[in-house]
Amino acid sequence: MNDNGWQPIETAPEDTLVVVGWLDDEDPETPERHDFDWKEDGCWQRHDADVEFAHEVAPPGSKMPKERPPYTHWIALPPIPRST
Fold first, then answer.
1. In contact, 24 and 70? CB cutoff 8 Å
2. Within a 13 Å sphere around the CA of 37, how many CA atoms are in the beta-carbon half?
3. Based on CB atoms within 10 Å of each CB, which residue in 1, 7, 42, 61 is the most buried?
4. Phi-psi region of 5 (alpha: psi -120 to 50; beta: other; left: phi over 0)
5. CA-to-CA distance for 13 and 41, rounded, in angstroms?
6. What residues does each domain of the chain span?
7. How far apart are CA 58 and CA 60, in angstroms?
8. Is the pLDDT score of 77 beyond 90?
């Protein structure tokens, strides 16, 4: 594990919502990207749903999400604090 908690995407757990991160090559000024996703049966569910939706509704010639998730790292979500 890195000192900052980010781990290689290959080590992400199954069936657990995590924060995923990557650097966007197309935005050199602010390349950091973050999202929430979970892996089920080896597939990133939110990313796959976004790709499927884009193919259903995007007009021809639209910029489409990549078929493979761009994620390179993940970090666990901390538990939500209980109110007192």
1. yes
2. 25
3. 7
4. left
5. 11
6. 1-11+31-77
7. 7
8. yes
